[in-house]
Amino acid sequence: MEDNSKPVSEHQTLFHNDPFLDNLARYFIGNNTRYRENIIIPRTMGPVVIKTNEEKLIEAGFESCAFKTTMSCVAGFGLGAALGLFSSSVNPTIVPGQELKTQTAREILREMKGTMLSYAKNFAMVGAMFSAIECAIETHRGKSDWRNGTYAGGVTGGLIGLRAGVKAAVLGAAGFAAFSTLIDYYMHS
């Protein structure tokens, strides 16, 4: 009498008709429905660390266009505020007709605050605009090279200069693209 109590999956071959070769193939290829812990990855320099799903999720969040744009906006705001503080301390505003009147500390601080906010908003806008355009171009092209920054600089400079007319847009695009290319070259060399 034949014992039919064993599961059917043990008798079925998955990869090869020979049971020995089938077991060998199952060992190396494995069952796709279970988590494999015996993955062998050749290493060249140093140990190979497989990222967990949480690490991959965090990395994808940091590499997203929204995060890059937000961080560029925040960094631009901070840099603009610092430059505004420096600018207002070097070049104080003197109202015509009141050259001899000394300003109070409150007036000086109010003026510094206004200059800092003006610079900060402008730098934040330019940083966010450049970063969003560069990320969109990089996503569209599917490459990460120096051309993305150059194209993004051209588009950003053109859009900023467009407020003053077409000639200013062309000059702004050329200038910002050249500046972006030089900065990218300097940062990567």
Automatic annotation (TrEMBL):
Subcellular location: Mitochondrion inner membrane
Gene Ontology molecular-function annotations: mitochondrion targeting sequence binding; protein transmembrane transporter activity
Record Pfam families: Tim17
Keywords, in A-Z order: Membrane, Mitochondrion, Mitochondrion inner membrane, Protein transport, Translocation, Transmembrane, Transmembrane helix, Transport
Record-linked InterPro entries: TIM22 (IPR039175)
Any one biological process term the GO annotation gives: protein insertion into mitochondrial inner membrane
Major location (coarse): mitochondrion
Its membrane topology: Multi-pass membrane protein
An example Gene Ontology CC term for this record: TIM22 mitochondrial import inner membrane insertion complex
Top-level taxon in the UniProt lineage: Eukaryota
Summary of the function given for this chain in its UniProt record: Essential core component of the TIM22 complex, a complex that mediates the import and insertion of multi-pass transmembrane proteins into the mitochondrial inner membrane. In the TIM22 complex, it constitutes the voltage-activated and signal-gated channel. Forms a twin-pore translocase that uses the membrane potential as external driving force in 2 voltage-dependent steps.
UniProt family annotation: Belongs to the Tim17/Tim22/Tim23 family.
Assembly description: Component of the TIM22 complex.
Protein name, as recorded: Mitochondrial import inner membrane translocase subunit TIM22
